[in-house]
Specification:
Number of domains: 3
Largest sheet: 8 strands, parallel
Radius of gyration: 34 Å
Catalytic activity: 3-methyl-2-oxobutanoate + acetyl-CoA + H2O = (2S)-2-isopropylmalate + CoA + H(+)
Number of helices: 17
Family: Belongs to the alpha-IPM synthase/homocitrate synthase family. LeuA type 2 subfamily.
Keywords: Acyltransferase, Amino-acid biosynthesis, Branched-chain amino acid biosynthesis, Cytoplasm, Leucine biosynthesis, Magnesium, Metal-binding, Transferase
Structural class: alpha/beta
Subcellular location: Cytoplasm
CATH superfamily of the largest domain: Aldolase class I
Number of strands: 14
Strand order of the largest sheet: 1-8-7-6-5-4-3-2
Bound molecules: acetyl coenzyme *A, 3-methyl-2-oxobutanoic acid, magnesium ion
CATH architecture of the largest domain: Alpha-Beta Barrel
Organism: Acidiferrimicrobium australe
Shape: elongated
């Protein structure tokens, strides 16, 4: 790899940085750029219906600033902006934002687009990086600053053409991360000298990580330095607009906020140019998971994902933070075990969420517990037991969990894939409750004489032949075991027995589990499910006897 053809880039080192000691305690001012930066990066840009659906979703989430397009760049963008203004679809407390290059004819058209809107952010930008100055514009710093200040004069003048609109100005020194920080301050101050912002009517200065050229810690240093250096800081909303070229846009946005950024521009699930814009859902849920109000409603994350996937015509990855199909799922055995125990230890109305391997309660983003644990060949008894409990209401004793999970593992290893709850039930019934078992209980009568003597008379089929068994013991289970021992002529004894009621709504009302020891010390569990507790216990004995017989055979 020809690494020597690349240069590390660190425009500034802030020795007295303060951001590492700060904490995020409040949400930033959010701005969605889905309908502009996201849309301009799509293979198929959104049609009007998709744009409208996305816009309404963003409003519903609580965004107060939404970049709705680049109206001078395309007729569909222009028409969409006219549509939401003319159809009165913009809530009073929401400002639409429009992007425009620093070019007079484009600025004129932009103001035409926003006429009639109550609140609009006019966002103008030009590239300020050393590279673009040289290869794209062929201009020195003065020439680049002139582009910005001429545009600032024009937007200020054009605001008079939309008297009913509260116009807020936003300026971006685009490709900021390739710009010398002192030149960025110089050009922003030159723009401010034209716009004349005040604390009551601040300007938004947006410092984009247009291409993520350096790590998040360098971005934070530069943002902190910029915030300390820019004049009239109280007349500035310091905004960041991270892209994800290095895969660290979320970190860059968070560190930039620690370093003083007030506002974040990004998209849902990180759609956007190349590797995308910063993912605002991720940022919001990072705050949420630290006990900070994210000021964005992400409580139905699947609905948001559905809208984004439909409108962008791009999928959200199954491992995408907080949103992916698999992110509240554990396949591996020890994780499943810990989650199962963690869930059991949590009260229904817990004070603070604490479950191993799950940073947030899936319910808070509209996901369900059912999807948390899924079983494949990497899974252990915990996951199998969890599904048997949550999906089928069976609380398997620990050693039965161990035994049954081996049966399940054999199936998942052979299939090479996940086993769903329905198929798990099939494996369970095939193993413990098969229809074609050699010994079958037809009916039974139980009589008790004295404290320790229970007598069972059972009608059974043994390999298709009718038999009447009798036995005595200190309970029906022990009595039936004695009868079976005599009939089958093998050593049988009970090692463990559990039973529990089944939840309402199921036909059977009891489940029983018997661990039996057979010839040569072999053990096997048996399971009985029946409307009567007594019969469930007897069925469990028959089930275990069948399993011991077949293991001997
Ligand atoms: C990082 C970002 O996301 S920035 C946003 C990028 N998004 C877009 O550009 C999408 C929408 N843009 C477009 O569709 C087109 O650029 C249009 C329709 C606005 C303009 O189209 P055209 O005029 O045909 O030209 P094109 O984009 O190629 O123009 C480039 C020219 O504009 C100049 N230019 C580019 N950006 C800017 C700017 N921000 N301010 C001033 N001039 C600019 C270039 O230097 C170049 O000048 P030249 O023609 O003298 O060489
Ligand atoms: C227009 C600007 C803010 C932009 O999208 C970028 O630099 O990424
Ligand atoms: Mg961008």
């Amino acid at each position: 790899m020809p690494y020597e053809r690349y240069r590390s880039y660190r425009p500034l080192v802030l020795a007295d940085r303060t951001w590492p000691d700060r904490e995020l305690t409040a949400a930033p001012r959010w701005c969605s750029v889905d309908l502009r930066d996201g849309n301009q990066a799509l293979i198929d840009p959104m049609d009007p219906a998709r744009k409208l659906r996305f816009f309404e979703t963003l409003v519903g989430m609580g965004f107060k600033e939404i970049e709705v397009g680049f109206p001078a760049a395309s007729q569909p963008d222009f028409d969409f902006i006219r549509q939401i203004i003319e159809e009165d679809r913009i809530p009073d407390d929401v400002a639409i934002q429009v992007l425009v290059q620093c070019r007079p004819e484009l600025i004129d058209r932009t103001f035409e687009a926003i006429r009639g809107a109550a609140n609009a952010v006019v966002h103008f930008y030009n590239s300020t990086s050393t590279l673009q100055r040289r290869v794209v514009f062929g201009l020195d710093k003065g020439g680049i600053a002139d582009i910005a200040t001429s545009a600032a004069r024009l937007v200020r003048k054009m605001a008079d053409t939309v008297p009913g609109t509260n116009v807020v100005y936003e300026y971006s020194p685009e490709s900021f991360t390739g710009t010398e920080p002192d030149f960025a301050v110089e050009i922003c101050e030159a723009v401010m000298a034209v716009i004349e912002p005040t604390a009551d009517r601040p300007i938004i200065l947006n410092l984009p990580n247009t291409v993520e050229m350096y790590g998040p810690q360098v971005y934070a240093d530069v943002i902190e330095w910029f915030g300390r250096t820019i004049r009239d800081r109280d007349a500035v909303i310091l905004s960041v607009h991270p892209h994800n070229d290095r895969g660290t846009a979320v970190a860059a946005a968070e560190l930039a906020q620690l370093a003083g950024a007030d506002r974040v521009e990004g998209t849902l699930f990180g759609n956007g140019e190349r590797t995308g814009n910063v993912d605002v859902v991720n940022l919001a849920l990072n705050l949420f998971s630290q006990g900070v109000d994210p000021r964005l409603d992400v409580s139905d994350i699947d609905a948001l994902k559905h809208v984004a996937e439909h409108c962008n015509r791009l999928p959200v990855h199954p491992r995408h933070p907080y949103a992916g199909d698999l992110v509240y799922t554990a396949f591996s055995g020890s994780h499943q075990d810990a989650i199962k125990k963690g869930m059991a230890a949590l009260d229904e109305d817990y004070e603070a969420w604490e479950v191993p391997y799950l940073p947030i309660d899936p319910k808070h983003v509209g996901r369900t517990y059912e999807a948390i644990i899924r079983v494949n060949s990497q899974s252990g008894k915990g996951g199998v037991a969890y599904l048997m409990d949550t999906e089928h209401g069976l609380d398997l004793p620990r050693r039965l969990q161990v035994e049954f999970s081996k049966e399940v593992q054999a199936v998942t290893e052979a299939s090479g894939t996940e086993i769903k709850a329905g198929e798990l039930w099939e494996v369970f019934t095939r193993t413990y409750l098969p229809d074609d078992a050699g010994v079958r209980l037809l009916s039974s009568e139980t009589t008790t004489s004295g404290e320790h003597a229970t007598r069972v008379t059972a009608q059974v089929l043994v390999d298709g032949h009718h038999r009447t068994l009798t036995g005595e013991g200190n309970g029906p289970v022990a009595a039936l075991v004695e009868g079976l021992r005599a009939e089958l002529g093998v050593e049988l004894s009970v090692r463990d027995f559990h039973q529990h009621a089944l939840t309402e709504g199921t036909e059977a009302s009891a489940a029983a589990y018997v661990e039996m020891v057979g010839p040569a010390g072999r053990t096997a569990w048996g399971v009985g499910i029946d409307s009567s507790t007594l019969d469930a216990g007897l069925q469990a004995v028959i089930s275990a006897a069948n399993r011991l017989r077949s293991s001997v055979g």
